[in-house]
Design brief:
By secondary structure, the chain is an alpha/beta fold. Helix content is 43%, strand content 13%.
Amino acid sequence: MKKEITFKELKDSGYLHKTINEELQENLIARIKANEPVFEGLLGYEDTVIPQLKKAILAGHHINLLGLRGQAKTRIARSMVDLLDEYIPIVKGSEINDSPFLPISKFAKDLLAEHGDETPISWVHRSDRFYEKLATPDVNVSDLIGDIDPIKAATLKLPYSDERVLHYGMIPRANRSIFVINELPDLQARIQVSLFNILQEGDVQIRGFQLRMPLDIQFVFTANPEDYTNRGSIVTPLKDRIGSQIFTHYPKSIALAREITEQEASISSEDKAAIKVPNLAKNLLEQVAFVARNSEYVDAKSGVSARLTISAMENLMAAAKLRLIETGEKQTTIRLVDFMSIIPSITGKIELVYEGEQEGADEVARFLIDDAVMEQFEDLFPRVPKLEKEGVKTTYTDVIAWFEDNFIELNYTATDDEFYASINAVTPLDTIIKEYASEYSKEDQIFCKELILWALTINHKLDKSENNTAFTIDSLGFGRHF
């Protein structure tokens, strides 16, 4: 915290007043020249969103971030705080961060007129210069801009025509700050109209007061294209006043999606040490989201948030942690059967079309997991033939034949040793792993064995049944596990 000083001490220090745009631009340029990262944690946007964001800041534009849910729009806005100066001086006691060099409120003007160079100056840290408002139908002009405060008028014995009876809304209080309005289309049209003057002329009018307050604010808006039809729209004159509209997007590769999930998932270091997650399991988790974004059951206009895989990873780790608690083991490894625990993370994060509603959210989640399994399986192993010619041996003939005399249970709650013993009992799988997955780790090879069995059940070569604790894999039509 910087100590309070007088206006004279501030001027003697050589401090020069800067607008918020000048602050953002100077600090952006300094970071670029120093080859420092400008925006931390915005993975996958290095060649798309971030260059556009830099140009918008250099142009001094207000910004509208347009994209589907879970595309880090709010995170982008919050990251801009790091481009502000660490501290700025304000007239002490000012509600709207008045600069002593350019005061705009009556309070600051009167204080400077009375004390001159001895006016007390306090400092505001950049972390206190970020304001955020979620646009909801109940937001009104008084909340955003301000209103007359009758209690203040009565207490100070002032007429309503006196500027001192005004109660400033969120926007005037955000003077010299970044102000974010999330989900802008949800803001009623008449409320959006109240922003016209602030965006274009930089001033504000409250309750018909002949009052000019040239506010210095960097506005950032966020919007979801779906909202344009479902809940509202951005009125055309307001869009016209927003300098740059930047489109966000989902990660374009599994590897990038994995990085984002790893960065965002809330998992303790103790859990990471005790629970091994095979690389193929990490890939499969991300594949579920990629499959969902192209699924005929999921509403593509709503999008599939990156929060799906973050939440799913947390659920997956929780399932493994529960197993450790119940078995008393010290370590365990994520299994394909554990993926049933991510179903609640999927059902809460997707919007279904009519066909999906007919199937039910739980069933659609299982379809998505199966589709992701098949995509990963076909990247690693030969396709399962739909029809087998008599006497012609395929990659999977021996595995299918093994189940004519045997069946296995893949138990959620089994220890790793017990689980490995069950799946390794299917000895024909070893030949397939040796040919197609010999370079993988032991954990990934076990996961591959599960993938093969799962794919054979999806292709109706084997039977798969489920109870509360296990999956049973058997030959078609036998049902020996019953």
